Amino acid sequence: MSFTLADVRAAAERIAGRVERTPMRKSQTLSEITGAEVWVKFENLQFTAAYKERGALNTLLQLSDNESRRGVIAASAGNHSQGLAYHAARLGIPVTIVMPRSTPFVKVQQTRAFGAEVVQDGDTYDESAAIARKLCDERELTFVHPFDDLKVMAGQGTVALEMFEEQPDIEVLPVPIGGGGLIAGCATVAKSINPSCRVIGVEPAMYPSFTARMQGIEAVTGGATIAEGIAVKRVGDLTYGVARPLIDEVLLLEEPFLEQAVALFCNVEKTVAEGAGAAALAALLAYPDRFRGKKVGVILCGGNIDTRLLASVLTRQLVRDQRLVSLRIIGDDRPGLLANVSALIGQMGANIVEVAHNRLALDVPAKGAEFDIMIETRDARHTEEIMEALRARGYPPRAV
After folding, report:
1. How many CA atoms lie within 13 A of 304 on its CB side?
2. Which of 9, 13, 94, 335 has its C-alpha lying 20 to 30 A from 105's C-alpha?
3. pLDDT one-digit tens code per residue, 286-302
4. What integer pLDDT is reported at residue 78 of this predicted model?
5. Sheet holding 351-358, edge to edge
6. Residues 6+ apart with CB under 8 A from 28
7. How would you list the strands of the sheet with 172-176, edge to edge?
8. What is the Cα–Cα distance from 259 to 131, expressed in whole angstroms?
9. Domains and CATH numbers, the chain
10. Is the pLDDT of residue 343 over 50?
11. How far out from the chain centre does Cα 322 lie?
12. What does the DSSP 8-state code read for residue 197?
């Protein structure tokens, strides 16, 4: 097996003008938050909102005429399927996609919109891949693997090629690992152009497939991670062979850091990131000492996140930041109590989101009343100021 920078450069020439050369910009605010010099590569600005277009297109452009007529098939949790479907349609190539039943609706819908036949079957990627392989043989199609393919790796590596063309002195490159296609391509570029650059893989803690393989043990995987795009039980054989000698370290990410990274991209950069797409930034939040003071290239891999999940992540971040707090107040059940408390909260500049009034709780006196008031504040300090003001007026609250 041979895979070099030349393969990535050839892929870049092949797909030039057919995919977006996405912008890479320094984020002043993210740099201040993390202590690193953060440069963000906005791959969510691809037409299908993810970098996966690159590898899919590079593969499609190398099919024979006969393979193009028969069509292609793939198994994917979403972004590979959309990239393959979109470019196959533009090239007039029939495409079938097998997706796990748990795939977010937005990804299924968008893949169908690009003209693909979508087969939803299997509970995991591995199960869907086995079904796709069977259909591939039955229909005599060409299987386009989402990561374990040299053509795909070369296409994905063009992300890093563009980054190093603009900022050749990147010191650290954290790259999300699912099956390993992106990190295999990007690590090849990084170590070829700037050998001193540290390449750090990042995986969701629930799916440590690359980490387990490095340790020579069976990966224990499972769980509902928001980074479903990199929730892969087993890293690819080809990708592992290419990437392993080039990777300096692999970090595991717990869910709160993935959620915070999604929220930061939305609130700071005003852009949408899915869980897997925000994994590189999550690494800076979870392991600040690895990146502090360094020039870091962060790939925002994709932005295909279910809108309800995004709303939940943003709301949960408000709770973490103590900007959304539920306060329980117990007092005498007399007219005007709620009005007095509400007036005080309003005077302090907070917004009441929800009120629950409970007279029947047994731990509340028969002549008393219990209120749960959810308020929205500016920050944790503002919340504490409001709680102190309530205490001073005789309405001592406690957070619930």
Report:
1. 28
2. 94
3. 999 999 999 999 999 99
4. 76
5. 351-358, 368-376, 324-332, 397-399
6. none
7. 24-26, 37-42, 295-300, 172-176, 198-204, 249-253
8. 32
9. 5-51+149-317 (3.40.50.1100), 53-143 (3.40.50.1100), 321-399 (3.30.70.260)
10. yes
11. 24
12. P
* Helices 150-166, 181-193: inter-axial angle, 10-degree rounding: 40
State the DSSP string of 103-125: S-HHHHHHHHHTTPEEEE--SSH
In whole angstroms, how large is the CA radius of gyration of the chain? 25
Classify burial at 89, counting beta carbons within 10 Å of its beta carbon; exposed 0-12, middle 13-18, buried 19 or more. middle
pTM check: above 0.70: yes
The amino acid occupying position 346 is G
DSSP-assigned letters across all residues of 202-261: EEETT--HHHHHHHTS-----S--S-GGG--SS--HHHHHHHGGG-SEEEEE-HHHHHHH
Q: Residue 12, SS3? A: helix
334: left (phi over 0), alpha (psi -120 to 50) or beta: beta
Q: Are strands 24-26 and 37-42 parallel, antiparallel or unpaired?
A: antiparallel
Q: How far apart are CA 121 and CA 273, in angstroms?
A: 26
Cα–Cα distance between 343 and 352 in angstroms, integer? 10
Least confident of 51-55, 206-210, 334-338, 343-347: 334-338
172 exposure class (CB count in 10 Å sphere: 0-12, 13-18, 19+): buried
Q: Please report which helix (H) or strand (E) contains residue 154, including its range.
A: helix 150-166
145-157 pLDDT per residue, tens: 999 999 999 999 9
HEC readout, 44-107: HHCCCCECCHHHHHHHHCCCCHHHHHHCEEEECCCHHHHHHHHHHHHHCCCEEEEECCCCCHHH
DSSP labels, 291-323: HTTSEEEEEE-B----HHHHHHHHHHHHHHTTS
pLDDT digits (tens, 9 = 90+) for 194-213: 999 999 999 999 999 999 99
